UniProtKB/TrEMBL annotation:
UniProt domain Fatty acid desaturase: residue ranges: 45-241
Family label: Belongs to the fatty acid desaturase type 1 family.
Annotated GO MF terms: oxidoreductase activity, acting on paired donors, with oxidation of a pair of donors resulting in the reduction of molecular oxygen to two molecules of water
Protein's name in the database: Fatty acid desaturase domain-containing protein
GO biological process terms on file: very long-chain fatty acid biosynthetic process
Compartments where located: Membrane
Entry's free-text remark on domains: The histidine box domains are involved in binding the catalytic metal ions.
Its membrane topology: Multi-pass membrane protein
InterPro entries in the record: Acyl-CoA_DS (IPR015876), FA_desaturase_dom (IPR005804)
Pathway: Lipid metabolism
Keyword annotations of the record: Fatty acid biosynthesis, Fatty acid metabolism, Iron, Lipid biosynthesis, Lipid metabolism, Membrane, Oxidoreductase, Transmembrane, Transmembrane helix
Length: 281
């Protein structure tokens, strides 16, 4: 289900085309940044641990639910568990499953070209957050969550306020959402700008440890672009990939099946040093 047609009419503003949906998204993002500003004045340990728990759950909603499960089908989950992680992704406020999966598949199809919805070729700032208010790629998927997307976060905000007042609201909604925004967006910007390339992917994707840690493993981005079907992105033992550890736990528990990872033969074909040697010869 696409946004109403009137929301897609574009106007020129500060050098680019905007529509009402873009502007609404921008306002929501700004409001959460404003909500997070008084965090030092509303700190208590209960609010802090709530922030940590919700950060982990909604972060997994994006990395495990939206990304590795729905966008790439790297493994299979029982329907109820797939829905649970997708719902956690909705509460991350980074788009509903329809928008997120569609945009991400488009990114892989046109990586680091002008058609890439969040390429650094359009500028570092655009790749980090500017693309969020450039709503051009959407397909029908998970219709209920698409229609009611914002209502779930509103309900969570009300619940947090009733339970713990302003400290819970500021830390559980404001700080948690803003921090998760920027660490997730760093995969699009930093991991296509700085880091190491191990695999011959033909694009700008990079592995970056400093991004991998807060994104629960998504910062091993060159690994991901080399083997986008893989449920595991930290391919070396020392590459911390918390999302992969959760998937492994679910696999041992019999809940995650058909878990895909690259074989040694597939790795050898993609090895960048091997391709360089072959080209030089």
């Amino acid at each position: 289900m696409a946004p109403p047609q009137f929301m897609m009419r574009r106007v020129e503003f500060i050098g680019r085309q905007w529509n009402l949906f873009d502007i609404t998204t921008l306002i929501v993002v700004l409001l959460f940044h404003i909500l997070s500003l008084p965090a030092p004045f509303y700190f208590n340990w209960g609010a802090f641990w709530l922030f940590v728990a919700l950060y982990f759950l909604t972060g997994l909603g994006v990395t495990l639910g939206y990304h590795r499960s729905l966008a790439h089908r790297s493994f299979k989950l029982p329907r109820w568990l797939e829905y649970f992680f997708a719902y956690c992704g909705v509460l991350a406020l980074q788009g509903n499953p329809i928008e997120w999966v569609s945009t991400h598949r488009y990114h892989h199809q046109f990586t680091d070209t002008k058609k890439d919805p969040h390429s650094p070729l359009m500028g570092f700032w655009f790749s980090h957050i500017g693309w969020v208010v450039n709503n051009s790629f959407r397909q029908p998927y998970y219709r209920f969550l698409h229609r009611t997307y914002l209502l779930h976060s509103v309900a969570l905000g009300v619940l947090l306020y009733v339970t713990g007042g302003l400290p819970f609201l500021v830390w559980g909604m404001g700080v948690r959402t803003v921090v998760l925004y920027h660490v997730t967006f760093s995969v699009n910007s930093i991991c296509h700008t700085w880091g190491s390339q191990v695999w011959d992917t033909g694009d700008l994707s990079r592995n970056n440890l400093l991004v991998a840690l807060p994104t629960l493993g998504e910062g091993w981005h060159n690994n991901h672009h080399a083997f986008d079907y893989s449920a595991r992105q930290g391919l070396e033992w020392w590459q911390v990939d918390i999302t992969w550890y959760v998937i492994t736990f679910l696999q041992v528990a019999g809940l995650a099946t058909d878990v895909k990872t690259p074989t040694e033969t597939q790795k050898k074909r993609k090895a960048l040093h091997k391709q360089i040697i072959e080209r030089n010869n």
